[in-house]
Specification:
This protein is α+β, with helices and mostly antiparallel strands. It has a single domain, classed as Creatine Amidinohydrolase, CATH 3.90.230.10. It has 4 helices and 15 strands. The strands form 4 sheets. A 5-stranded antiparallel β-sheet has the order 8-7-9-14-15. Strands 1, 2, 4 and 5 form a 4-stranded antiparallel β-sheet that branches. It has a 3-stranded antiparallel β-sheet with strand order 3-12-11, with no helix packed on it. Helix 1 packs antiparallel against helix 2 and helix 3 packs antiparallel against helix 4. 51% of the residues are buried. The chain binds magnesium ion. The site of magnesium ion has 5 residues, from loops.
Length: 253
C-alpha cells in the first residue's frame, strides 16, 4: 500500500535526505586510487551518526547487510560490501549507495564516481546514468504515471545501447526504506500508478554498459553484470508536491 506523506513528514524527509547528501559531500573529497571501500564506509558512518541519524543499510535484509553503505566497483551493479581488501584503482568507477534514518524517516541516494582518470566510455556511462535520473525526475508531475517515468529512463539509456537492469527498481520510501510503489527503470508510457501529491519515491537508474542481465555473487549481496562490463548507479529521493518534484537528498534544504 502506498503511504502518502504530509507536508510535515516531507520536511522530516528533507532532513534525513540532507544527511545522505552530506555523506556524498564527504566521500567526493576522498575517493581516489589507494583508498579501501572499508575506509569509505567508516567515513560515511561517521557523517551519518554525527548528524544524529542511523545508517539505513546496516543490518538490513537477509542475511543482514554488514556495513553502513554499499560500495560497488566496475561490474558490480549494486550492494557491494565494503572491505579492507577492496582498494580503489586508477580507472575504476565506484558506485556508493547511502541511506540515513532520522526522526523516523529515511533518505536514500546513490552516486557513481570516477577513480582518477577513467576511459571516455566509462565517463559517458556515468553521465548518461545521471541524465536518466533527471529525465525520470522531469516526468514526476502530478497526474503522470509511473510508466511515464520508467519508459523515459529506459528510452534514454537504450538510445546509447546500454542495458537497463530489470530485477532491481526504485521504490517508495518513508518510515520504511523500501515502500510501495516499485519504480522500474523500464516500462510503458501511460501505464502504472498515477503520480499524486505526497508520493515520495527513490528513482535509481542502474545502467549497464553491456547486457542488462545480472547475477548475485556468493556473498548473497553483491550484484554483478553477467558480461563483466561496468555498471553505473544514480539515485535521489524525491517528494511530489503541488509545486513539482522536490529532491530531498540534497545538502541545502
Ligand atoms: Mg534505493
Amino acid at each position: 500500500m502506498v503511504q502518502l506523506k504530509t507536508p510535515t513528514e516531507i520536511i522530516k524527509m528533507q532532513k534525513a535526505g540532507r544527511v545522505v547528501a552530506l555523506v556524498f559531500a564527504a566521500l567526493s573529497d576522498v575517493i581516489r586510487p589507494g583508498v579501501s571501500t572499508y575506509e569509505l564506509d567508516r567515513i560515511a558512518d561517521q557523517v551519518i551518526r554525527g548528524e544524529g541519524a542511523v545508517p539505513s543499510f546496516l543490518n538490513y535484509g537477509t542475511p543482514p547487510f554488514p556495513a553502513s553503505i554499499c560500495v560497488s566497483i566496475n561490474d558490480e551493479v549494486v550492494h557491494g560490501i565494503p572491505s579492507r581488501q577492496r582498494i580503489l584503482q586508477e580507472g575504476d568507477i565506484v558506485s556508493v549507495d547511502a541511506g540515513a534514518l532520522l526522526d523516523g524517516f529515511h533518505g536514500d541516494a546513490a552516486r557513481t564516481y570516477p577513480v582518477g582518470i577513467i576511459s571516455p566510455e566509462k565517463e559517458q556511462l556515468i553521465r548518461v546514468t545521471e541524465e536518466c535520473f533527471w529525465i525520470g525526475y522531469e516526468q514526476c508531475k502530478i497526474g503522470s504515471r509511473v510508466g511515464d517515468v520508467s519508459s523515459a529512463i529506459a528510452q534514454h539509456a537504450e538510445s546509447f545501447g546500454y542495458g537497463v537492469v530489470r530485477e532491481l527498481t526504485g521504490h517508495g520510501i518513508g518510515r520504511q526504506l523500501h515502500e510501495d510503489p516499485d519504480i522500474p527503470n523500464y516500462g510503458r508510457k501511460g501505464h502504472g500508478l498515477r503520480i499524486v501529491s505526497g508520493l515520495v519515491i527513490a528513482i535509481e537508474p542502474m545502467i549497464n554498459m553491456g547486457r542488462k542481465e545480472i547475477r548475485l555473487q556468493d556473498d548473497e549481496w553483491t550484484i554483478v553484470t553477467i558480461d563483466g562490463k561496468p555498471s553505473s548507479h544514480y539515485e535521489n529521493t524525491i517528494a511530489i508536491t503541488p509545486e513539482g518534484p522536490l529532491v530531498t537528498t540534497k545538502v541545502d534544504l
